[in-house]
Amino acid sequence: MSAEQRSTNSTSGFPFTPQHNPATPFRINDLPSEIVGRVFEACVALPCSLNPLTLMLVSKDWYHLAFGTPTLWTRIFLPPYIQYLEEKVASYLARSKTIPVSVIIGRRSSIGCLRVITLFDGHLERIWSFTCVVSVGSVDVLWSEINKMAVLEELVLEKSPEISPTITSQRGNNLKVPSLKKLNVGNVDISWANTHLFQIEDLQLVYTQFQGVLVMDRLFDALSRFTTLKKLFIGLYSNFPLYIRFWEENGARPKGPTSLPLLKELKLKGLLDQQVEIVLREIVAPELDTIFLLEGRNEGFITERWPVLSGHFPRVTAPRLIK
Question: Distance between CA atoms of 70 and 65, rounded to whole angstroms?
């Protein structure tokens, strides 16, 4: 072996074998199909994921390999304007076999959104992650279907941007998904009094309100049942100071502060100093070690009110302002 060959072999990521000359490019088709399949999985899992249909167009070998790899077909993304909607859903569900799937439904009218949901009849119990842009007429039916997703772990519901600031259900948004671990809600009201989330770890609530009262009745009563909660985010986007109602009107809550024994991280965005103080006085979180105050509007709270409250959170040196 020449010195040049030895040098090439020492820097190559592949072992030198009689079947492969390290001085030439290594062809991906020389790899075992199991490894190529793992490469495909990594490509599909990227943030800007590669469509598995694209892989099938490269060659006949890749077509059969991609077709026969169920994990490539577990992310079902349905943008607002998509051709052959029924065919795509049916093919992805069939090719992913029995593996749990994630579903992302882009903005649609209420009729269009409900039409998409019907395509998953018989497969709702396979959905482990569900993201949907909600319209007014679809929220009640959606809530009923979501409660049928027996293995659901991640749920993201966002209000369609062309309608009123916050969607409220006509029958009450009673969320009862025992397996749910992450809930991200944007401008969709939840009936907290009847919501049961026994494994929830990450709760994100985002509201856009232009004026008036933001009602979050019974939120902290509900949080008292979320004993597994580790992350809590409350975000408020408004051009006006708002009165936030965290509990029923007519006086203070009689039950006292809410215990969150596993809470590690608290993020508050867009709240006034007084509202931040209300939230912190409403929770007991001995494991809390990080408080983020986003948008950097709470310098006064840190200098004036935090010294009074700091004793309740011994693991937190001071809230962090993030602009």
Answer: 10
Q: Please state the pTM of the whole predicted model.
A: 0.81
pLDDT digits (tens, 9 = 90+) for 10-64: 444 444 444 555 555 657 667 677 787 787 777 777 666 678 888 787 888 888 8
Residues in the chain: 323
The DSSP output letter for 196 is B
Helices (H), the chain: 3-11, 33-45, 52-56, 60-67, 85-95, 110-118, 139-146, 219-223, 273-281, 299-300, 306-309
For residues 38 and 48, what is the distance between their CA atoms, to the nearest angstrom?
17
Cα distance between residue 271 and residue 294, in whole Å? 9
Alpha carbon distances (Å) from 211 to 163, 206, 236: 16, 15, 12
DSSP 102: E
Residue from 296, 321, 224 nearest 263 by CA: 224
Which residues are CB-contacts of 22 (< 8 A; sequence separation ≥ 6)? Answer: 5, 8, 9, 12, 14, 16
pLDDT digits (tens, 9 = 90+) for 111-168: 677 788 889 999 999 999 999 887 766 677 788 889 899 999 999 988 776 555 555 5
What does the alpha-carbon distance between residue 166 and residue 209 come to, in Å, rounded to a whole number? 8
Q: Which residue has the tokens 């077509």?
A: 63
DSSP state at residue 249: S
The string of DSSP codes covering 3-33 is HHHHHHHHH-SS--BTTB-TTSPPPGGGS-H
